[in-house]
Amino acid sequence: MRTMKKQEVYEYLKNRSIWYEITEHKAVCNMEELSEVALPYPEADAKNLFVRDDKKRNYYLITVQGSKRVNLKEFRRENGTRPLSFASEEELKEILGLLPGAVTPLGLLNDEARSVQFYLDKAFLEEPGLIGVHPNENTATVWLKTRDLLQILEENGIRVYSVEF
């Protein structure tokens, strides 16, 4: 699997004339660590959960606003999935080419089999329409217009489900 590195993500965005802004920061592995970083758009920061069903057949990336909590049992009920749990570090590396703490919707571009279903918090589509995600590494946050992120994903064959959390 070929994994895009941080600089390659920036080049990809630049070559497609997509507006973005970068906030470099220390490596962060969770929202608590990120809360210590001064962010220009804290309300647009994303929390990303990479989960799988109990049969290890279906994988999901759930992206919500950083302040929200995700109830996996409720998500399962509302979206008709089997019981869910967090995917392993090995599954994360094998499927998205990412390390723990660096989970991001941009990692879906590394999923050559397009096996991961992507669920996005509808709140990111509301004004100002920004989202902050890691550029496949947890030492920066790249800010994008949510619609641009969705367009990139959809152009690459990734189906996006917008849901309320």
Describe the structure in your own words.
It is a single chain. By secondary structure, the protein is α/β, with parallel strands linked by helices. The chain has helices at 6-15, 31-34, 72-79, 89-96, 146-155, and strands spanning 20-24, 46-53, 59-65, 84-86, 116-121, 130-133, 140-145, 160-163. The longest helix has 10 residues, at 6-15. It is globular and about 40 Å long.
Low-confidence stretches: none
Query: Structural class given helices, strands, pairing?
Result: alpha/beta
Query: At the fourth CATH level, what is the homologous superfamily?
Result: YbaK/aminoacyl-tRNA synthetase-associated domain
Strand order of the largest sheet: 4-2-3-5-8
User: What is the number of helical segments per DSSP (H or I, 4+ residues)?
Assistant: 5
Largest sheet entry? 5 strands, mixed
CATH architecture term: Alpha-Beta Complex
Mean pLDDT: 95
Indicate the radius of gyration in whole angstroms.
15 Å
How many structural domains? 1
Compute the number of strand runs: 8
Please tell me what the overall shape is.
globular
Termini separation? 32 Å
N to C succession of SSEs? HEHEEHEHEEEHE
Strand content range = 25-35%
Question: At the first level of CATH, what is the class?
Answer: Alpha Beta
- CATH fold-level assignment: YbaK protein
What percent of residues adopt helix (DSSP H or I)? Answer: 10-25%
What is the multimeric organization of the chains shown?
A: single chain
